[in-house]
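Human: I'm a chemist; would you kindly supply sequence and structure tokens for a protein?

Assistant:
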Amino acid sequence: MGYCRAVVAGKSVYVSGTAPIMFDGGDLPDGAYEQAQRCLEVIVDALEQAGASADDVVRTRVFITDAQWFDDVARAHAEVFRDVRPANTTVVTQLMDPSWKVEIEAEAVLP
């Protein structure tokens, strides 16, 4: 497809939609909470490589496959962003892989 995990444009960092993929080829976590944690780990790593951190995030978009996953995903999101409190949109939708319960993207402003 040709895309980057994160792109820096001026003082902004845009992190692509991030699924709960294990880069070592390992099994995906089963639960929505654990999948969201994995998505956020990848996002925070991408932010750090771009010179930002979770504290610099101003917006997140969360895509879940079933509204029943909202509380679990929100708990994982809060663990990273409780004090940051970025703008957020959460959408219930179908994702590319039926084993994914969640996909998350983020936008940050470089310090």
Q: What stands out?
A: Residues 19 and 25 are 13 Å apart (CA to CA). The domain at 6-109 is CATH 3.30.1330.40 (60s Ribosomal Protein L30; Chain: A;). The helical segments are 32-49, 70-81. The chain is about 25% helix and 30% strand.
